[in-house]
Amino acid sequence: MAKSADPTQDGETVTAATESTPLLSAPESIATRPNGDAKPPHPNGHAAKPLDHDTQSPSPSSETEREGDDEEEECPMPTLQILLLCYASLAEPVAYFSIFPFINEMIFRLGDLPESSVGFWTGLIESLFSLVQMALMIFYGRAADRLGRKPVLVFSLAGISVATAMFGLSQNLWQMVLARCFAGCFAGSVVTIRTMIRGSLACPTDLNHAPGAFCRAPFFAQFPYALASFVAGALCLTSTLAAQIFLKETLQTAAQKSASDPKPAPPLTTWEVLTSPGVPTVLLIFGHTMFLALAYTAVSPLYQFTSIENGGLSFSDAQIAVFIAVAGVSQAAWMLIGFPPLQRWLGTGRLLRACVAFQPFFMASYPLLNELRRHGYERAFWGTLWPTLIIGSGVAMSFACVQLALNDISPSSAVLATVNALALTVNSGIRAFTPVAFTSLYAVGVKWGWADGHLIWFVLIAVAVALYVDCWFLPKAAEGNYGRKKVGGDGEGEAR
Question: Does residue 4 lie in a domain region?
Fold first, then answer.
């Protein structure tokens, strides 16, 4: 889908596009190759339309390009480096989500607040991480361009390890706010990959029910939430050490750039990428999807913590941790087992619309669960909760769908990193205000008793319905491989 057949264009634009953030770098076999393809392959593997050999004969330069392609195909995939980057990328979502299972009780107990005010502070503390992260993201990107990928990444990972562990030592609301901002300061260079960490290591404030010797120690009696934060920080620290010891630098020196492409063509600017056909629409759908997901993620633990009479489930920290763990395992199962065959069968667009169509019903199940428990139908409640959670977790496939749509709509593989950087910026911006907005709305609904405390779910249902409408405007170029047809009998082609 490249716009130019200039063989010198892609080699440089790959270098330029892949230097937006430390973890969006291309594999070395691609980033340092002498020449790019005249028509780079589609980001999702769709082959570009072949040249008409009756009207255009191959030139010597094209022969050289094919030889370069053969050499590139022989280069082994840097599996270890990819695995290290994947492991390093766990640090940011672990730091962000690790407090979710216990943050509500921590604020309720340490902040000495009424239950109706917990939601506002929960959203504020959760949002500060992303707000600071978004403010420093460009700084980290520029630092990585100047200093190299590896040193900036290791610095970021080391800082987030310490900051995450410090959060559990907070003794009042303002210490929690400062610790959360401090963690966000070191999260600007890490690509966001959504994941969860169990919160079952939060020590209960009632030490008579403590699960082990750690929680009975005097230190954890004074800081009951420190153990969970220490474990999250330790996980981040292991990724720091792995990156420092094993990860290779991917930033090219000036001499390497000159040798790889002596006559570079100017890459597409960020504005040109942003205004390319279909890109704004897909970014809008991506942002809407993340908006709904982050709103649900912020509200769900608060809903589980809230008392039954106020519209929640009155779960303990351990029950919230189990709920999150089951949801995480279910999402992983849907992604690993269900998504590949469904995407091949339905295509990206149809699968996305199917997932989004189910979301209003999934959101509607939560007030129903509260009503079952409110009226004493415990067996019906537990019999409904787990099937709903396991089946409803399938909506997580929409995240993979919008990511594939971003790849498909990219003007070329050379600017794929830029497209993903734009999406990452959108995601960080949404994550900066969504938790505080929706947890505050939840608190207002609980405080005033609107719809028996279920106001937030009616809002989320409306957001889900609006997202379903948006998905029908997905560009044809981003619909995936559904209905692929052969072009000219050569076995190649793309769905459009």
Answer: no
